[in-house]
Specification:
The strands form 5 sheets. Strands 1-2-3 form a 3-stranded parallel sheet, with helices on one face. It has a 3-stranded antiparallel sheet with strand order 4-5-8. The protein is elongated, with a radius of gyration of 32 Å. Helix 1 crosses helix 9, helix 3 crosses helix 5 and helix 16 crosses helix 19. It has about 475 residues and is mainly alpha-helical. It has 4 domains: about 140 residues, HUPs (Rossmann fold, 3-Layer(aba) Sandwich), CATH 3.40.50; about 150 residues, 3-Layer(aba) Sandwich (Rossmann fold); about 50 residues; about 90 residues, Orthogonal Bundle (Arc Repressor Mutant, subunit A), CATH 1.10.10. Strand 6 and strand 7 form a beta hairpin. Pfam families: Anticodon_2, tRNA-synt_1c.
Length: about 475
C-alpha cells in the first residue's frame, strides 16, 4: 500500500491571508483531498515581534471562507522551539554541525574584503574543522556542515531537476547565539514530525530546498516531494502588489465574489486541465496534479475572475445561494433580510442569478424586493414616468385586478393592452420597471410581478399612476 499523502499550508501570521498564499493553500488542499490524504495547517509564528493573534485569526477566517478545511489541530511553530533546538544539538553530536564563534564584525569584515577583491562573499567559517579543545568561552552559533564539493539536485515536480553546486551554499546557521532556532531548521523539523510527504509552495522557496535537504540528509530523514509553483503576477506582468488592487482574501469576500468561483479561478492560476475553465470542487480534486502546472508566473485577471464567479452563481442551487447571500450581508454588516424579504428572495433567486457576477450585482437586481413603498425611482427610471406613461399605468390597473396571477395570463393581458394602444411592449415595460423597482434595468417585468404578488404589484403601479408628489 502506498504512503498516505500529507500536505501542509504554513503561513506566517504577520498580516492578512494574501491571495498568493490562498492559492498555495488551495493547491495543497486539492492535492491531498484528491488522493484521500491529509491537509495540515501550521502557523509559522516564530517572528514574535511581527506575529499577532489578529493575523492568525484573519488567516483562519480567510481559509474558512474559501472552504479549505484542514485536518487535525493547528500547529504553532513557536511552541516547538525546544524540539527544533534538540535537533540542532543532535546534528552537533553527529558531527553534521559545528559551533562557530565568529562575530558579526568578523563576518562583515570578511565580506567587505571579498567584495573589494571581487571574490565570493559566501562565508566559510574557520571553525568548521576546529578542534573543540581550542573553542573559546564565548557565544557561538551552530552551523550545518554543507558538503564542500559536488552538486545538490532538487527533484522538483514542477521545475524539473534543479542542480545547485554545493560550493554555492553556505554553512547555514541552525541555532543563533541566544539559543533560538532559525526558520530554516524549524520548517524541516516540523515537516518531518508532521509527516508531510509533499511540500507544495511558491518557487521563491526553491533555493531554500537545497539548504533544507542538507538537514534531512544529515538526520537520515526522507526528503519530501518538492513542488515549487510559479508566483502570481498582476495583469502588467509584475509581481502582484497593492497597485493591482485587492491582495487579501477578505477583500474579495467583502466585494461579494462567491467562494466557489474564487476556488475555481485560483486553481486555474498556474494550473490547467486541458481547456477547462469552469469546474466544480469535485472535478478540481479529481483532476489536480503537477502535470498540469506551468513554470511561468500566472497573471491575475479580474475580468476572468468575474466571469468564472458569474458562472458559479448561476450554477449554485437556489437555497445554497440564498444562504451565501445572507452570509455576505452579515460580513459587510448590511441589514439582514427580514423573513418576508427572505421568502420573496427565495422565490426570485432563479430569475436573479443569471448574469450576476458578484453578490452586490445580484442584490442590485433584487432591488425591487429590497425596496419599500412608496418606490422612489432613480433619475433614469423617472424619465420613463412622463405624463403619458403615468396615464397608461392608470388605465392598466383595472386590467391587472381582474387578471389571473400567473405568467401566461399576465403576458397575455399586458401584450393585449399594449396592442390595443398600438404600443410596442418595450414602451409599456419601461414605466412598469420604474413603478415596480424604481430602476430602468431590472429582471423581467413578469418575474417581478410574480414574486411581488398581485396586491404589492398593483399598489406600486397605482402609486406611480398618481404621478410625482
Amino acid at each position: 500500500m502506498s504512503e498516505q499523502v500529507v500536505t501542509r499550508f504554513a503561513p506566517s501570521p504577520t498580516g492578512y491571508l494574501h491571495i498568493g498564499g490562498a492559492r498555495t493553500a488551495l493547491f495543497n488542499w486539492l492535492y491531498a483531498r484528491g488522493r484521500g490524504g491529509k491537509f495540515l495547517l501550521r502557523v509559522e509564528d516564530t517572528d514574535i515581534a511581527r506575529s499577532t493573534p489578529e493575523a492568525t485569526a484573519a488567516i483562519i477566517e480567510g481559509m474558512a471562507w474559501l472552504g479549505l478545511d484542514h485536518d487535525g489541530e493547528i500547529v504553532s511553530q513557536a511552541s516547538r522551539a525546544d524540539r527544533h533546538r534538540a535537533v540542532a544539538l543532535e546534528l552537533l553530536d553527529r558531527g553534521a554541525a559545528y559551533k562557530c564563534f565568529a562575530t558579526q564584525e568578523e563576518i562583515e569584515a570578511f565580506r567587505e574584503s571579498a567584495r573589494a577583491e571581487k571574490r565570493s562573499t559566501l562565508y566559510q567559517s574557520p571553525w568548521r574543522d576546529a578542534d573543540p579543545v581550542n573553542h573559546p568561552d564565548m557565544p557561538y552559533v551552530i552551523r550545518l556542515k554543507t558538503p564542500l564539493e559536488g552538486t545538490s539536485v532538487i527533484a522538483d515536480q514542477v521545475q524539473g531537476n534543479v542542480k545547485i553546486r554545493n560550493d554555492q551554499l553556505d554553512d547555514m546557521v541552525l541555532l543563533r547565539s541566544d539559543g533560538t532556532p532559525v526558520y530554516m531548521l524549524a520548517v524541516v523539523v516540523d515537516d518531518h514530525d508532521m509527516g508531510v510527504t509533499h511540500v507544495i509552495r511558491g518557487d521563491d522557496h526553491l533555493n531554500n530546498a537545497a539548504r533544507q535537504m542538507g538537514i534531512y540528509t544529515a538526520m537520515g530523514w526522507d526528503v519530501p516531494v518538492w513542488a515549487h509553483i510559479p508566483l502570481i503576477h498582476g495583469p502588467d506582468g509584475k509581481k502582484l502588489s497593492k497597485r493591482h488592487g485587492a491582495l487579501g482574501v477578505e477583500e474579495y469576500r467583502d466585494m461579494g465574489y462567491p467562494a466557489a468561483g474564487m476556488r475555481n479561478y485560483l486553481a486555474r492560476l498556474g494550473w490547467s486541465h486541458g481547456d477547462d475553465e469552469f469546474f466544480t470542487d469535485a472535478q478540481a480534486q479529481e483532476w489536480f496534479g503537477f502535470d498540469g502546472m506551468g513554470k511561468s508566473p500566472a497573471r491575475f485577471d479580474f475580468k476572468k475572475l468575474a466571469n468564472i464567479c458569474g458562472q458559479h452563481i448561476a450554477a449554485t442551487e437556489d437555497a445554497a445561494l440564498l444562504h451565501e447571500l445572507e452570509a455576505f450581508l452579515a460580513v459587510t454588516e448590511a441589514a439582514p433580510l427580514s423573513e418576508a424579504k427572505k421568502s420573496l428572495m427565495a422565490e426570485a433567486i432563479p430569475s436573479l442569478k443569471d448574469r450576476a457576477k458578484t453578490f452586490p450585482e445580484l442584490l442590485d437586481k433584487a432591488q425591487f424586493i429590497l425596496a419599500e413603498r412608496p418606490i422612489e425611482p432613480d433619475e433614469k427610471a423617472a424619465k420613463s414616468l412622463d405624463p403619458v406613461s403615468i396615464g397608461i399605468l392608470g388605465e392598466l390597473t383595472p386590467q391587472l385586478q381582474s387578471a389571473s396571477w400567473n405568467r401566461p395570463e399576465l403576458e397575455g393581458a399586458l401584450n393585449t393592452f399594449a396592442e390595443a394602444r398600438e404600443m410596442k411592449f418595450g414602451q409599456l415595460a419601461a414605466p412598469l420597471r420604474a413603478a415596480l423597482a424604481g430602476r430602468s434595468a431590472t429582471p423581467s417585468v413578469f418575474d417581478m410581478m410574480l414574486v411581488l404578488g398581485r396586491e404589492e404589484s398593483i399598489a406600486r403601479i397605482q402609486d406611480a399612476a398618481k404621478g410625482p408628489a
